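Need a sequence for this fold. Nothing fancy.
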């Protein structure tokens, strides 16, 4: 069967593990209107979102701060109750069946830990096993796999408070997977991590999805996470779904650009090369902009052939810039899928 626009088999969409139909979340906020007066105001954090995530998909769920990403995740886990619409995860209503759903999902919040601060990782994992009532053999097999792939062996007897951010994040991901969840929610899982830690987390998630078919919904500000892990991306802003499709399509809709930073061996006039334009020059360093949907390899090859390159790096566009371009072009909602 033919793939859909996001690269997902059209038939697979019928096997939806996550379903949202017109989901809303409205908060009542009190604001000071004078010395003794306060007014009440409604804030729509999520405003009529609809989408499906098929079993085994890895989907990026992105947007600027305050867009409604974390609110959506909290409704999907049952932490928050929707103000309107229909929501199902693995056949459950998260708000009504939160306890039963907990056995089917795993959650990692990048800026919070689910581990016990004063306990070593090993003891935290034993408590997780008891909470989820995971059979011993299954628990030990899952733990061994996570420890091996996330490089946690030397950390099992270290108290969580003594772990670095990257070590704790890998520990949190392992804890979320010890009970074999069908769905894994990742809220900024690589925030603040160094390059090596990010690479380990991304490799692990790719292997997890390929080998076990775990469905992953990933929120992040790092578009490299999305590029390396997800075939499909959804963009939310002001509580509304603006785009649902392939990442390349998002870049095309927003005409976003990546930046190639080139360090030359000596100062030179602005680099002139097909497929890019020089936007800034400071001494031997030059910044070139090129379409985000294009491959950087041919561009790098052309520059290396014609200029004395000492070093170079690529900077990804900020999702805020991509969305701003979408708005500027009048594309808001143009690529969204209900």
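Here you go.
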């Amino acid at each position: 069967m033919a793939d859909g626009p996001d690269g997902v088999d059209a038939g697979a969409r019928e096997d939806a593990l996550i379903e949202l139909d017109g989901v809303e979340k409205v908060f009542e906020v009190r604001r000071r209107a004078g010395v003794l007066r306060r007014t009440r105001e409604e804030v729509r954090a999520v405003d009529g979102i609809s989408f499906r995530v098929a079993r085994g998909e890895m989907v990026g769920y992105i947007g600027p701060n305050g867009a409604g990403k974390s609110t959506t995740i909290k409704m999907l886990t049952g932490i928050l109750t929707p103000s309107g619409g229909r929501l199902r995860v693995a056949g459950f209503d998260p708000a009504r069946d939160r306890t039963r759903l907990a056995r089917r999902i795993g959650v990692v919040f990048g800026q919070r830990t689910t581990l016990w601060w004063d306990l070593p990782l090993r003891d935290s994992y034993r408590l997780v096993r008891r909470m989820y009532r995971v059979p011993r053999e299954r628990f030990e097999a899952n733990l061994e796999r996570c420890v091996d792939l996330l490089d946690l062996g030397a950390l099992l007897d270290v108290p969580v408070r003594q772990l670095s951010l990257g070590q704790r994040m890998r520990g949190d991901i392992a804890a979320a997977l010890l009970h074999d969840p069908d769905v894994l929610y990742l809220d900024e899982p690589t925030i603040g991590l160094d390059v090596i830690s990010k690479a380990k987390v991304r490799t692990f998630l790719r292997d997890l999805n390929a080998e076990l078919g775990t469905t992953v919904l990933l929120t992040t500000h790092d578009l490299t996470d999305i590029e390396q892990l997800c075939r499909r991306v959804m963009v939310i802003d002001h509580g509304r779904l603006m785009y649902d499709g392939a990442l390349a399509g998002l870049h095309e809709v927003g005409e976003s650009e990546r930046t190639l930073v080139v360090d030359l061996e000596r100062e030179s006039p602005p680099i002139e090369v097909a497929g890019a334009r020089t936007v800034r020059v400071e001494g031997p360093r030059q910044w070139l902009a090129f379409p985000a949907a294009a491959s950087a390899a041919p561009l790098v090859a052309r520059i290396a052939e014609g200029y004395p390159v000492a070093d170079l790096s690529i900077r990804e566009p900020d999702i805020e810039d991509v969305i701003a371009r979408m708005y500027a072009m009048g594309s808001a909602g143009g690529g969204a899928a209900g």
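For context: DSSP finds ten helices and 13 strands in the chain.
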